[in-house]
Amino acid sequence: MTQPKLLKKLFISQYPPMSNERGNRKRKHIHPYGPTPNGNEPAATSIDPSKYLRLLGMLMYLTKSRPDIMAAVSFASSKAHDPNDKDYLDLYYIVEYLRSTEDMGHILHKAIDSGLLQLHCEVDASYLLHPDSKGHTGYCMGLNGVSGTFFIRSMKQQLVSTSSTHAEMRAIYTLVKDIMYLIILCKEIKVNLHLPAIVMEDNSAVITVTIDDSAFAKKCKHFLMIINYVREQVELGIVSIEKIAGASNKADLHTTHVGNIMGGETEADKNRLRW
């Protein structure tokens, strides 16, 4: 799935390519987060918010077919209340990344024809990612474990978490609520979902606290309500939380700043960018 008309409008009519300071040399592959800061940049100046919001809105719409920019756009949206020229340049780096990866898109695979549909989700969270110490939630949903997803979310957490386990539990709590909504929706439209929904999580501590009462007796009292809500859905057979390796977790792409492509990212980052 691609959005060629919107990409063409973005590339040609409104946002021309960045000037190349090195003449006609071939431009390097630009990452959606831009190059690594060198520490010698001038002070930022405020810009017209409507200019920033116009480009941000186009990029938000493009995330429907380009999930690899979802986290970058999510981070950019947190600056929308008072943007400056550096924030606008960050948006332009996303445009340049899209320009250099124009052939990429979101692939929707047909579910395995087994008569049963089962939700397979991957979830992750980043702890203390934002300047105000709040974390970031990311997750994706697919069917029957096939490659590809139909729903993806990347969002700043509303409250400050006190540990990585706390942040991960907030992410699972948000995901489980969306799973409950999907289950009810499917019942309304007469689509049978096989339960439990599989939730893949790369944090072993989170999996432990959802199955072991003694594991959270002291350290997790301040977010016990979230744990108990998730535990209840596990005990009812609505969700099942399973372990996944961090390098294989696609949701990690939607919660962190992956490596700088201009400087060379990890092989795991390259694989997760190939949707």
Write up this protein.
This protein has 275 residues and is α/β, with parallel strands linked by helices. The protein has 8 helices and 5 strands; from the N terminus they run H-H-H-H-E-E-E-H-E-H-H-E-H. It has helices spanning 4-14, 49-62, 70-77, 85-100, 164-188, 204-209, 224-235, 267-273; strands at residues 119-126, 134-143, 151-160, 197-201, 239-243. Strands 3-2-1-4-5 form a 5-stranded mixed sheet, with helices on both faces. Helix 2 (49-62) packs parallel to helix 4 and helix 5 (164-188) packs across helix 7. The radius of gyration is 20 Å and the shape is globular.
Key phrases:
disordered C terminus; alpha/beta; 36% helix; 275 residues; 5-stranded mixed sheet
Lateral arrangement of strands in the main beta sheet: 3-2-1-4-5
Q: Order of helices and strands, N to C?
A: HHHHEEEHEHHEH
What is the beta-strand fraction? 5-15%
**Total count of strands:** 5
Q: Could you say which overall geometry the principal axes of the C-alpha atoms support? A: globular
Distance between the termini: 11 Å
